[in-house]
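Cast an eye over my tokenised protein here and flag anything odd:

===
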Amino acid sequence: MWLKSTRTKGSQGEQIARRYLRKKGFKVLEMNFHARFAEIDIIALDKKTLVFIEVKSAQSERFGNPLGWIPAWKQNKIIRASQLYLNKKGLHGKPLRFDVVAINPDKRINHIQDAFRPRGEFFV
């Protein structure tokens, strides 16, 4: 049996998430924004709100719900990468949030808006 690489599975999940978000009226600005220490899967606009989106997809239920795969340390890396993006694009003061799009093995989508928030001071 041929096993798909993690990157291939991730790319397929991101494609599903991107189509879902566009149907919901989001404008996708960037895919796979890389910072030295983290990657943001999708950056999009939901009306006037800038949204940083982590995509999680599962091929089986074996490892539990994909939403549980984003521990605090990973959230902090995504938040730090978002600060870099905001500085790079000059988007200071723009409303923003952090969402998670989880794709289950049967391709059902669970979109959690405002899934996590920066703790303490958030400087850009």
